[in-house]
Specification:
Layout lengths: L2 E4 L4 E3 L2 H9 L4 E4 L12 H7 L1 H11 L3 E7 L6 H5 L6 E2 L4 E15 L6 E6 L2 E5 L4 E6 L5 E7 L8 E2 L33
Antiparallel strand pairs: 1-2, 1-7, 3-8, 4-10, 5-11, 6-7, 6-8, 6-9, 6-10
């Protein structure tokens, strides 16, 4: 279940409707799609994309995306730490960043610039859409596992643009707790990780 934390205000939001309303203030879309009953635990990338085709097609129309794929990251992923250091520093993209998490979890920190930084923890069933130009960074949780659908407008437009005066070092990426320590291992299948 997703949650939003606002460290400077010592505030946490766990109710999905409240999360959706909070994120909407910053142009961030949040939805929850069923996972159990739609895909099995061993679903292939192709099966995942097929299962969520109606939602993917809707998002393509809404955001102008042309492609979708599935990324699969786990602790055995070669070069995982080096890969993640690209995205754990404050950056922005020239297209919307849309991720639907099928398995595992991760944390998007958002820096709205005109409001306190907040963290959005996403887990299985959570869809988040971060608008282009939004300052953000991404961390995995302690299980270092995430499998999600990504959508793209233009693969070449995905390079992160880093901030000259980033704030990410002031914020802990921690998202610990019992539910994060039970991540089962998956296969080593991987695409290039871009968050
Ligand atoms: Fe990003």
């Amino acid at each position: 279940m997703a949650r939003v934390q606002i460290p400077e205000e010592n505030c946490e939001i766990r109710e999905p409707a409240e999360i959706k309303a909070f994120l909407k203030q910053y142009g961030i879309e949040f939805e929850q799609w069923d996972v159990d009953g739609r895909i099995g635990p061993d679903a292939t990338n192709e099966e995942i994309l097929a299962a969520y085709e109606p939602e993917i097609e809707r998002l393509k129309k809404q955001h102008g995306f042309v492609t979708a794929d599935v990324i699969n990251v786990n602790p055995e992923t070669p070069g995982l730490d080096a890969m993640l250091t690209k995205f754990d520093k404050e950056h922005l993209h020239s297209e919307d960043e849309v991720r639907f998490t099928v398995k595992g979890s991760g944390v998007f920190h958002i820096n709205p610039e005109t409001a306190p930084v907040f963290a959005v923890t996403v887990e299985s069933g959570d869809l988040i859409s971060v608008p282009k130009g939004t300052h953000h960074w991404f961390n995995l949780c302690t299980d270092k596992t995430i499998r999600c659908i990504r959508l793209f407008e233009d693969m070449s437009g995905w390079t992160p643009e880093y901030m000259e005066d980033p704030v990410h070092e002031k914020f802990s990426p921690l998202c610990m707790g019992p539910s994060y320590l039970e991540g089962e291992q998956d296969d080593n299948e991987i695409d290039v990780a871009r968050f």
